[in-house]
Amino acid sequence: MGTKLDLDDIQGLIARGYRSLPYARFTIFAAHDAAAGHALLSWLLPRVTPAGRSAGDSALHLAYTAAGLRRLGLPESVIAGFSAQFMRGMTGPNRSRFLGDVGESDPHYWAWGGPQEPPVEGLILLYANSPEVLDARQAELATRLDGLAIRQVTVLDTLELGNNEPFGFRDGISQPIIQGLPKASGAPPAGTPGGRVVPAGEFVLGYPNAYGQLTSRPLLPAADDPRRLLPRDPAGSGAADLGRNGCYLVLRQLEQDVDAFWSYVRQATAQRDGSADTGRAIALAAKMVGRWPSGAPLVKAPDRDNPQLGGDNDFGYYRTDPLGLACPLGAHVRRMNPRDSLDPRPGTEASLAVNDGHRLLRRGRSYGPGDGTPAAAGRAGRDSHAERLVRADVAPPRATGLHFICLVASLIRQFEFVQHTWLNNPTFHGLYDDTDPLIGNRLGCGATFTEPARPVRRRYRGLPQFVRTRGGAYFFLPGISALRYLDQLSAGARSGSFPLIRDEVTT
Amino acid sequence: MPHQIGVTIRAPVAAERVAELRQWLAEAGKKGLGEAPFGFAGCRGLHFARFYLLEETADLTGRPIPASLVFMSEVDAPLRRHLADLADVAKEGIDQAFQHCTGYPGPGGRRRQRIAWLRRHRVRASAFYVNTVGRGVAQIRQEAALREALESHLDRHDHTGRTATEVRRELQAFVAGHADLAWAAKPPARPSLFFRAREALHMVAVPALLLLALPVLLPVILVWAVLLRLDERHDRPFTQRPGLAHLEEVADYEDFSTQNPFAVAGLLRPGRLRQLTFRAVLFLTDYGVRHIFNHDSLAGVKTIHFARWVPLDGWRRMTFSSNYDGAVEAYNDDFINIIWWGLNATFSNGMDYPPTRWLFFGGAKLEEQFKNTIRCHQVAVPAWYAAYPELSADNIENNAQIRAGLRGEMSPAQAQQWLARL
Question: Is residue A30 part of a domain?
């Protein structure tokens, strides 16, 4: 297909997950006034890594919330071009109910981003190839922020990027392949059921999406961009396109209760004398995840782990496992990405095409203490980290989890839909009372996990909640020229010639 | 089992009472309609009920249309019994709601007067979709309880090493051994003979008459198609986006359980061509939902419990409302991906719809325009009652199949397939 992505204008995070830069730190900030916000942007702009340039020893990315864009003087009429979800944010009561951020995940208890916490305006994501480089870049950034008296709302540290997430399972295997990126050229035109080539417009604004259309984004009259900093609307309206080459970025701090998870599967599979049955415990955990700790998919390795299939992503569900006998219908990965099991006509291209409209480009990183975590534990020993966790050989880490990040063109059709209609939906795929067994909310309902089997399914009732939301916000990750445009607003604001700064109160 | 009917009652609200009514609806909805003052949980055969306010507006000529209160219920026949329940069981709530409307007899009015008033304010739906015709509230609840009982039984016993046929026999014996489940051994009763005869006659008579009229209809359809295509060339993209406050107001009443209420209202396009088209499409929709899509799915969409298309104000306006599973975003996606053609054929006769081609094409396929149209015209449903809010339509059908599988002979493979429903 002929999608040509403007890689020099797209931030590199869209094109890469930075496996070569395994150290990362995310700084969430709020400027105390417009001038400071502008000064920070001017300083950061040359440091932002475009997709077209190789990252070297580090990479930096910059994203703003609606409040952050307001702070930079973007007029309300332009902000109104963003999606309703972005403008409203993640924490209103209706959004919380929709996203399952209730009970212990209620934003009122969040560590950051909640209604009682300081407002979030922007996010700086730093990636580096060594802890030293990361520390140096972070120190430089912190000095700059301090110098500008910009508040660091929180700094989210991450663990060295390994293969496994804190529960002990290999993570990040199934990612959509973006049309127009080099990876897509080697794949079959539509990809495979697992490795689908998805239109770029699902993840980058200003390109055709899964419906062959351009997702709405803020467009400005050309007169508001006299220096032609912004690309023009590809639909040909002549408008300056502030959204093109950008996307929405969802950041959520998801705390994982590793102890509760392994304690639960250990107890649920204990032998009559009460002793743990490691094999059965791991098998149950794998049923809940839909993959074995090595990453091997259950549809291909139904009975035991097969590390050789660890990165396997070439499978569908409908033809091989329509009833979920290998991979339960409600398993985590089957919900996150149901592949070919959706109406209309499961097992066909039509089903996969529907699925394409709900993909997330995941860029999350784990966090927690350095010891007892997969990255540390994975380096030594013969047993898998999951085996050690289930035997309680290692103390489960406290305060660990995932700084979940996903990049999407539509917050509602992609992130929010997946969260509500697939993960937290107790009636997903014909079930009755099952939310996602791994990360689902259990308030009021959804505390069942059904494991299809012959002759009769096994039901696990009273599943505890293993994951809690501890913070979150919706950001916009602009294209480089959009950042330049915002920077120029700041120049105008400083000289007083650009009448675009409005009081925040107008919202 | 009875068939299901959709009751729509609509009455104008005096301008000075609209604000008060709006507030009352929000409070009534928050308290829930199941218990007093409505007591809908005690109304016989009631599946769903709702109240919503259609705000004052003007038609395309500028003629004002006063605000009105809409009550809708989906209920097992007969209508007489339902109206009696509204006047007796739900009296207090119904009085409180409709006393905001002009001319309501009020709490002091005699029972007969109140029922007559409700009857007079009934509005006929042009088409009424029932997920599965004939499946009453009692059956849905019974079959849900049956499934619970069977699931609990399975939980209590270890079936390792047994065949599916053996387990099925055990479940049959379990049901046979419980007097309170004795009903499950028999198939559910069908709707009345009169209803079935009437529907059968309609099913045959409509195509027969259309066939007879074909020589006349065919040239008319050809001319109509050309005129319609010419008319469509004036279509303009829908560029409006729903306001944040409006979205928030709608969202205030959404996503509390598996099911959601949905309602849109809008003006119809002017001119005889569109009037004729709309009426013809609704006539065919009525036929389709009565005779083709009357079990488990509306042309492939399996998440809708009930839906109705109701022309208002002398066919100047229409409202569409439904009870469905999941969120409005997923619902819209189903519209776009599965029944885009049906949506286009009906809703493109309304204002603000994305451009269509030959009535069926385009339209809903313009994803964002379509979703914006729907969201802009969505009406908040502040007061809503659902008799079984946690059951998806899929669950209800599965429960019915579980019951059906208790009867008759099955091969081992069939028995295994049946057990997978549990």
Answer: yes
The predicted-structure confidence for A302-341, as pLDDT tens digits, reads as follows 999 999 999 899 999 999 999 999 999 999 999 999 999 9
- Domains, chain B, in order of start with CATH, read 4-132+238-322+346-353+373-386 (3.30.70), 137-187+392-419 (no CATH)
Q: Does A94 touch chain B (CB under 8 A)?
A: yes
Judge if A432 and A461 occupy the same domain: yes
**What pTM value is reported for the model?**
0.95
Residue B51 has pLDDT above 70, yes or no: yes
Closest CA to A230 of A238, A222, A246, A241: A241
For the stretch A427-461, pLDDT in tens is 999 999 999 999 999 987 889 999 999 999 999 99
pLDDT (0 to 100) of residue A490:
62
State the smallest CA–CA distance between residue A427 and chain B in angstroms: 7
Which pLDDT score is estimated for A451? 97
| Domain membership of residue A403 as a residue range | 254-470
pLDDT in tens, B25-34: 999 999 999 9
Is A425–B326 a contact, with Cβ atoms under 8 angstroms apart? yes
In chain B, positions 290-319, which contact chain A (CB-CB < 8 Å)? 300-302
How many A×B Cβ pairs under 8 Å? 101
**Phi, psi (degrees; rounded to nearest 5) at B76:** -75, 140
